[in-house]
Amino acid sequence: MSIGLDVLAVVIVIIAAIVGYKRGFIRSVIRLLGTAACVIVALIVSDMLASPTYNKIVAPRLESALLGRLENFDITTEIKSALNEAGADIPLDNKQLKKALTDAGSIPAAFERAVLSAGGTQSQAEKLRQEAQDFLDNDLGKTIAKRAGVKDHESVGERLQLSAGKVYDIVRAFAAGDDNSKGVHYLVYDVFDGLFTTIIRYILFTVLLLLLELIVSIIFRLAKVFDHLPLVSGANNTLGLVFGILKGMLYVGLIAAICAAIAKSDTVIDTKVFDDSHIFRIFFNLFYK
User: Fold this and answer.
1) Of 7, 158, 185, 247, whose CB has the highest number of CB atoms within 10 Å?
2) Residues 259 and 277 in one domain
3) Domain of 59?
4) What is the tens place of the pLDDT at every residue in 124-164?
5) Could you give the C-alpha distances from 273 to 1, 259, 262, in angstroms and in order?
6) pLDDT digits (tens, 9 = 90+) for 221-230
7) In terms of domains, do 17 and 107 share one?
8) Are residues 86 and 174 in the same domain?
9) 204 CB contacts (<8 Å, ≥6 apart)?
10) 101 and 156 share a domain?
């Protein structure tokens, strides 16, 4: 994959250089102005359509799929099992545990209060609080990903970095009902929305840009924009070649910017594939770091 990114970058620059050489500098500049207009329009339209596309088309299907995969998921059982495996003594029944999971504020602190209220010792309460905190910080994402059927759930769980507030909200949403609908709804519309909306935005942008470039090309041909320009000279060819190389690098930079934007958007995408490339990573790091 990393080699493929390098090959793609080189191919784009070579094609752009050849096209620039054949067009010459003047024609290349005119086409670049057309491309710039296409980029601006594609950015505006894709930004307008991204959220509605996710909310009305993608999110309902994603929610339905996750509900099916998490049909037998029980957050109370999962957390109790994880705490037992960690060696924490839990002097609470499932009802008390569920109440602690749905309390406002810090869930580990709610566990501590519940243990003390149930007559447990201070050491039991502190141990349970610490183990609950460790599970929520490190293993909740892995557990949900595993139950959802994600093959690489360990890696996905580690890269899915969530704030403490979102972690608590996820747990409370899953503990609020018996069918997990609230939990899945929260995941779809409050956790995954940023990532998927970003991906959709740039898919729409790419499609719109290609379509608009085709339309502009047709308009230029029909309007015979280039017919009255002077014949291409050797110097104009050379400048066109240089301009084409620069334009190719700009296209690669645009692709890198899209990849960086997706990688920064609450994503579980492993950036190692970009770091392992030799050429593409130079462009990627300009926008990611």
Assistant:
1) 247
2) yes
3) 2-66+208-288
4) 888 888 988 998 888 888 888 888 887 777 776 666 667 88
5) 7, 11, 14
6) 776 655 555 5
7) no
8) yes
9) 42, 45, 46, 49, 50, 53
10) yes
Q: Cβ(59)–Cβ(199) under 8 Å?
A: no
Question: Phi first, then psi: what are they for 175, rounded to 5°?
Answer: -80, -10
DSSP assignment letter at 56: I
What Å distances lie between residue 188 and 32, 174, 182, 253, CA to CA? 39, 13, 10, 31
d(CA 183, CA 155): 22
Q: What length does the chain have?
A: 289
Q: How many distinct structural domains can be found in the chain?
A: 2
d(CA 171, CA 201): 29
DSSP assignment, residue 192? S
Which among 88, 99, 176, 172 is positioned nearest to 132, based on CA atoms? 88
138/118 same-domain check: yes
In the numeric block, the tokens 């799929």 are attached to 65
pTM: 0.78
Give CA–CA dist 110/35, Å, rounded: 57
Contacts of 20 (CB under 8 A, 6+ apart): 28, 240, 241, 242, 243, 244, 245, 247
| Cα-to-chain-centroid distance, residue 32 | 30
Identity of the residue numbered 278 = H
Same domain, yes or no, for 110 and 153? yes
